[in-house]
Specification:
The structure is a homotetramer. Chain A is of the alpha/beta class. Chain A has 12 helices and 14 strands.
Amino acid sequence: MTRLKMGMVGGGTGSFIGDVHRKAASIDGMIDMVCGAFSSNKEKSISSAKTLGIPDDRAYGSFEEMIIAEAKLPAHQQMDFVAIVTPNHMHYPPAKMALEYGFHVICDKPLSLTLDEAIELEKTVQSSGKIFALTHNYTGYPMVKQAKAMIHKGDLGAIRKINVHYLQGWLSTAVEKTGQKQAAWRTDPKRSGIGGALGDIGTHAENLIEYITGIQIEELAADLTAFGEGRILDDDGNILLRFENGAKGIMSFSQIATGEENNIGVKVYGTKGSIEWYQENPNQLIVKWLDQPKQIYTPAGNGVYPESSEYVRIPAGHPEGYLEGFATIYRSFAKELLMVKSGKTTSVNPDFPTITDGVRGMKFIYAAVESSNNNANWTKM
Amino acid sequence: MTRLKMGMVGGGTGSFIGDVHRKAASIDGMIDMVCGAFSSNKEKSISSAKTLGIPDDRAYGSFEEMIIAEAKLPAHQQMDFVAIVTPNHMHYPPAKMALEYGFHVICDKPLSLTLDEAIELEKTVQSSGKIFALTHNYTGYPMVKQAKAMIHKGDLGAIRKINVHYLQGWLSTAVEKTGQKQAAWRTDPKRSGIGGALGDIGTHAENLIEYITGIQIEELAADLTAFGEGRILDDDGNILLRFENGAKGIMSFSQIATGEENNIGVKVYGTKGSIEWYQENPNQLIVKWLDQPKQIYTPAGNGVYPESSEYVRIPAGHPEGYLEGFATIYRSFAKELLMVKSGKTTSVNPDFPTITDGVRGMKFIYAAVESSNNNANWTKM
Amino acid sequence: MTRLKMGMVGGGTGSFIGDVHRKAASIDGMIDMVCGAFSSNKEKSISSAKTLGIPDDRAYGSFEEMIIAEAKLPAHQQMDFVAIVTPNHMHYPPAKMALEYGFHVICDKPLSLTLDEAIELEKTVQSSGKIFALTHNYTGYPMVKQAKAMIHKGDLGAIRKINVHYLQGWLSTAVEKTGQKQAAWRTDPKRSGIGGALGDIGTHAENLIEYITGIQIEELAADLTAFGEGRILDDDGNILLRFENGAKGIMSFSQIATGEENNIGVKVYGTKGSIEWYQENPNQLIVKWLDQPKQIYTPAGNGVYPESSEYVRIPAGHPEGYLEGFATIYRSFAKELLMVKSGKTTSVNPDFPTITDGVRGMKFIYAAVESSNNNANWTKM
Amino acid sequence: MTRLKMGMVGGGTGSFIGDVHRKAASIDGMIDMVCGAFSSNKEKSISSAKTLGIPDDRAYGSFEEMIIAEAKLPAHQQMDFVAIVTPNHMHYPPAKMALEYGFHVICDKPLSLTLDEAIELEKTVQSSGKIFALTHNYTGYPMVKQAKAMIHKGDLGAIRKINVHYLQGWLSTAVEKTGQKQAAWRTDPKRSGIGGALGDIGTHAENLIEYITGIQIEELAADLTAFGEGRILDDDGNILLRFENGAKGIMSFSQIATGEENNIGVKVYGTKGSIEWYQENPNQLIVKWLDQPKQIYTPAGNGVYPESSEYVRIPAGHPEGYLEGFATIYRSFAKELLMVKSGKTTSVNPDFPTITDGVRGMKFIYAAVESSNNNANWTKM
C-alpha cells in the first residue's frame, strides 16, 4: 500500500496539538511525515526536525519556504499534503498557499482568524479541487458515529431537544500570565480571533451537534463572559439554540469550570428515544427509549451499526481514546487522497469535517459574539 | 415524645403525591395522620379514609368542612397542621383558610395558581404567625445539604457558574388525552397556572440552585416551548440565568425528554472547586477541585459536614432515597412545630423551604413566561 | 384497613438496627409498634419507650415479661407479632418463646447463635403454624426482584457462574476496643457465634445469590482470616462455590476492606445473558446479553416485570433505598399476617426470607468455618 | 532521533494481535517495522507485506529464514528486534533463535507453551544479554502506574486483600467450531498449552496484581472448568490466593461470562486505603480512604505522581485507551534498546514486563492446573 507523505506547519518541540496530529497520523500506518516548518525560526525548526527523525534539508523556516521547496521536488518525493497545527491566526495563510500550490490540506480548528478568511478559503478549496479536512476530532469517536447513524436512520424519531456542554477548568486562574503558551495565544484576540473559549471549544460543541444530528442551528442567543481578570475574550458562555427543524436546545461551555478536565457531552432527544455521550468516557453511548429499557452501546459491541463499527480498530471492551478518534479523521482524509491519487472520484460526502464545517464554525463564532454584544438577542447563524 | 397530628387535603386513592406525603410523614415516627379531606366527594373521601385507617368521622368532603370541624375539636384531639397535596389551583384556598383558623400548613409546590395568590398568602403567613413549609423535597437529600454547607463555608470559593437541568420524558406522547390524571391537570392552565413543565419541575430546579448556593437569580431569558400537539402550556424550556453576584448559568427542563425518568441535576462552579449532584443517584456528591483529585462524598461518609450528616438516618453505604429526602422536610417542619407547641421560639432560618421560597418560585414562573412571550428578552425576577 | 401491632425485642436508644426495623415497619402504614422489651434493664426500656411514644406499661424489662404480659391482654389489644432486633445470641430464645405463645415472629439475621438452635427453631415454627420472617433485607430491593424474575423465567438461559461480594471497611481498625457497641458484640463469639464477618455479612451474600438464582450452593472451600490483631472471629473471607446445577462461583466478603462502606454486589452469568447489581446504587440492574446491547433496568422503568414493579412505591426515577427494601420484607410479612387473621391460607411461597433461609444461612456458616479449619477443603453445605 | 527497526513473527492479514502490536509500535514514532515472517506460507507473507508497506525482499516465509537473512544484513539495515505475535506454541522457538542470533525480543504472552520452555528461555535471555519484553499490556495504563506508585510509597498501608477478575463472554458459545481462528487455537492444547482462559487471560490478571502490588502469590487453590461442550481446556476459573506477605485474595476469570467484553478489574485493600481499577474505563483510579472521602484520580489530573504522569501522552480529560497502554510497553522497550545501542547500561528494573514475569506467568498456569486437578488443593506457585 502506498503511504502518504505529510508536511507539517507548526508543531515544534513542546507543542501539544502538533504532537497529537503526528501520533494520530501514524496510528493507521498510512502516513509518513516527511517535512515540516515546525517553527518560524529556522534553527528551532531544524532542532525539532532532528527529534522527529526528519532530515535537516526538509526542515523549513516558514510555510512559504516549505511549500515552494516541496513543490519543486519530484512527485514521488514531495509531500502529498500539509497539516496545519498553528494557532488560529496562522491557519488561513498556509492553507490558502498550500491549496494554490496543489497540495491537499488538513487543518486544526477553528478554520481561521476571521469569517472573511473562512469564506475566502472556501472559494480557494472549491477552485483548487483539493481535499480539505478540519480536525473536529470528536466526530471520530465510534460512539459518535453510532449516534449519528441512529439519528440518521430515524431510530430516535423526530429530534426535538439538543443540549451540549463543553466544560474545562484550566483557565480558572490567570495561567496566561504565567508564561503558559497554550493559554497565552488563546486569550489573545490577535492570535485567537473574536472568540475565546467560544472559538476554542464552543466550535467543537457546535460541530458535534450538527454532525450527530444533521440538523443546523438556525439562530442563537448567547451570553458570553470573561470572568478572568483582564481578559478580553470570553472564557465562559451560555447559549440558547433554535434549530432549522424546530428543535430547541442549549449550549454551555467554559474554561473557568474549575475542576473540569475536558468534559464535552451531548444529549439529543427525539420522539422515540434519546442519546447521551460524554467524551471523557467515550466508549459508551447511552440510549434511552420511549418504551424499552435504557441501553448502553459500546464500540464493536452488540447491535452497533456498520457505520460505527467500521471505525473501530480493536475488539469490544478494548477502549479507544482521543488519539484514535483523531486518527480516524486522518485515516478518512488519507483514504480520500488515495482515491484522488489513483484517479478515482472522491466521496461526495466524505466522513470527516470539511471546509463547509469550517465556515459554519466561523459563522457560529460571529453570530454568538454579535448576539452577546446585543445582550443575547436572537441572531441568525 | 409527643406525636403531631396531620390533616390532609387531597391525596385520595390513586394519588401519587398524597401517598408520598403520607409515607414521608410516617418515616421518622413524629407524625400521625388523623383526618383528611381526601376528595371533594364525601363518599370518596370516606372510602379513601377507610383504606388509610382513618375513622369515618374524620373524613371530610371539603377542606372547609375539615378546617371548621377540626377547629371545634378539643386541642388534644384536633389536627396540628394541614398537609396540602392537591393540584396547584387548590393550594391557596385551603392554605389561607387553615392559617386563618390557626393551623400550621405544609404544602406541595408550586405555591399557588397565580403570583397574586402567592403574595397574598405570604401576608397571611406573616400575620398568622403559623409555620408554613413548601415541599421542595430535593433540598432534603443529605448530599444537597453537604453541597450547601460546602458553598456556604466558602470551600468552592466565589461562585461563577451554575447549571441545572430537570429532564423527564413522561409527556413525550399525549398521555393527557388518555385519561392519565397526573398529565391531565398538569397540562391544564386552569389547574396548573401559567407554567406547565416550568411550574411543575422548573420551580424545583430554581429552588434547588438558590437553596444550594444561597445566591438569587437576578434576571433570566427563557425560551419555552409546547412540543406536544395541542398543548397550551410549555412542556420544555431553556433559560439563560444571571445571578445577583455576577454568576451566570443555564437551566434546561423538559417533560418531553424521551427516556428520561426524573433526571434533576446541578453543577456549581466556584473559583476553588465545583460540585455536581444528580437526583437519580442521590447518595453521591462529586466535588472537583482546582488542585486536588476529584472527590466523591457519600451520606455519613468520611469528611461530610455535620450540616449534612445530621440528616442521615442509616450508616454509610446504606442508600437513602426520595422518600427519605421528602421525610426530611416533614421532620424539620415537625421539629419547628414541637418547638412552637413547647413555647420555644422557632428557628429564624428553618432548614426547609418556606413561604418565601414559594413566592420566589411564583416570581420565577412569571418572569420566565414573560421573557418567553417577549422572545427570550431578559426579565428581572 | 386493620393495622398490625408489633412488639419489639431489643432496639433501645442508640440501636442501629432497631431504628431501621421501626422505620421499615412504619413506611407502608400497615404496622404500629405497641410495646417493646427494648432493654434487659427495665428503666432503660421505659426510657426508650418514652422517646418512641410507647406507654410505660407496655415497656418491658425482658422478652419473657413481654410475651407473658402481652399474651394475657385482650386479643384486640395484644401485639400481633414480635420483631427481634438483638445480637445473634438473643435471637433464638425470644423467637422460640414467642412462637410457643402464639405470636408470629420477624427476626434479624443470622437466624441464631448455633446451627442446633436453628434446627430446633425450624421445628418450632413448623409445629406452631405461625409466620416467621428473617430480615435478609437485600431481597427487598425492586431490582433484586427483577433479577430473580428474569432468571426464573429463563431469560438468562442456564446459569453457569455466580460471583458475589460484600465488602465493608468499618473493622479496618480495632474499633471494638474503643467502646463501639456494634463492633464489640460482632467480634465476640459468645454473642455472634462461630462466624464473624461470615455471619454478619457473608450470610447476606449467601442468601442473596440463592434468592436471586433459586440455585443452592452444594459445597464450598473457604479461606477465612482474622486480620485484626487479637480477633478471634474472621473479619475477612474468600470462598469457592459449587452449585447444585453445576454452576461455579466465588464469594469475597470483608469488614477490613478499607474505605468500603456497604458494598454488596452480585453477578450471575447464564448461557444467554447476565445480570449485575450493586446495593450502593440499588436502582439499576445491569443486564448484558449474548447478542444485544447491554441494558439498564430501573424500578418502575420500561420493561420491568410485574414481579418487580409491584414492589415499587414511587414513579420511575425517584430512588428508593435501604429502608424501602427493608420495608418490603415487613410489608410482605404483614400481608401474610393479615391473610392469616382473615382466615385465609397463607402463601405457599411467601416472597420474604423464611425459617428455611435462616437454617440455610446457619449451615453456610458452619460449612465455611469447617472448611476453613481444614485449610479450605471442599465441604458440603 | 534514531528510530528502531522491528521484524515481526506472525501478524499476517486478519490477525488481531499483530495489528495491535504494529499500531502500538508506531504511536510514539520510535519504531519502524522493516521486515516480517507474517505467515509460514511465503506467498501469504509477501501478500501481507504488501499491504503493510514492506518490500517483498523483507517478507520471509519463516522466522528461521528471517533471522538468518537479517543477521547477514549490514547493521544499519538489519532489524534491531523481533516482535513475536504468534499463538503460544510459536513463542519459544523464534524467541530463542532470535536471542541467539543477537536480536532483542518483544513477545506476546503467555511466555511459552510449557514451563520447561519458559525456564530454558530465561537462561537464554540471561546468557544473551539481550533485552526481552513481554506484552502484559495492562501494566501500561497510566492509572495502573499510579496504583503501583501509591502502593509502593505506602499510601495504602500494609496490603491485606487483593481481588482481581478478568471476565469475557466471547466463548459463551462454541465459536471455535465456526472457523473463528482466535477461538480455534485458544481452545487447542497443542497451540495454547495446558491453560485455556487461564493462560490467555488468567495470566494477565496474575501479572496485573503482582505488578501493582509488588507482592507475589505464594500459593493458590484453583477450581477450573470447561463449560463449553467438548472443550478440553478451561474456559472459566475461580482461584483462592495467598500472598507472600500474608494478604489473601481471590481471582475469577472466564471466557463464558456472557455479555462481558473485556472486563479486567482489580481491587487492593491496605490498612490505610484501597484502590480500584477497571480496564474498560481505564482513565480513572478509584481510591478509598480510611478517613477521607473517596477520590478519583485521572491521567495527568491533579495529585497524580510523576511515576504515572510520565506515561501520559495528552492533557487531562483526553482519554487514552488500549493501544496507548500497549504502546507504553513498546516505548519503554525502545528506550532500553536505545540505551543499549548508545552504549549505556540498561535499567536494572525496566518498567515493562520481562522474562521474569513470563516465567512467573507459566508457573502460575502450572500451579493452577495442578491445584484444580487435585480438587483445588493449595499449591505453591
